[in-house]
Design brief:
Elements lengths: L1 H37 L16 E12 L2 E14 L6 E4 L3 E6 L5 E7 L1 E5 L4 E12 L4 E10 L7 E10 L3 E10 L6 E11 H10 L8 H18 L1
Antiparallel strand pairs: 1-2, 2-3, 2-4, 3-6, 4-5, 5-7, 6-7, 7-8, 8-9, 9-10, 10-11
Amino acid sequence: MLVKSMTVRFRINYLRGMAIVLLTIAMPLSFLFSCFSEKKEMVEVVFNPQTSYTTKKTNIKSFVSDSGITRYKIITATLLMFDKSSEPYWYFPDGAYLEKFDTLFNIEASVKADTAYYYQRRKLWELKGDVDISNLEGVRFQTEHFFWNEQNVDLPFYTDSFVLVTKPDVIQMGHGFKANKDLSYYEFNNASGEYDVEMRQRTVESDSIPLPNSELDVQNDYQDTDDADMKDK
């Protein structure tokens, strides 16, 4: 009986000791895991509607309609839409090509630009960079900054920048410009020159001076002449 009693006591003490050891190990581990669970890093993503686009489209060739009438065609490599901006707009960072149609689906004008913006509420196009526009008659308009206001019925095209106009027989230039919807009528705010293409070509050939490589060379020649006149004065 004495042996049995000692054996039972030994087992009870042994089990108590194991329980204490296990409890001693478990408590630090529990604390360690609780610490790890509490140190969560929260990454907050801030959405700025003025600088963050809501939609991105690539390789676009699309027709745009208004009131059931197809107004123009757009071709562009990249289109970013900022629909949540205070003034919603489309951005064409890689340039854009547009064809404007009349009510009979005839092309009234074609427009190319290095960069373009379209402000949806105002229905306003802003074209930047190398802006090149041609009308149905083949008249070419070149500038660095141009606007097209679809809500202006009379004179939707305008700019305050320098514009070079090339016709088959005449080259015109000036600062400040506005034109009607098919660019058949236009006017300068400050016309700065006009050249008869045929007469200029004859004069250049008789003087054995090479023709300018482009219309922009004509612009530069004219500006250089102005600068020389200003220095003389």
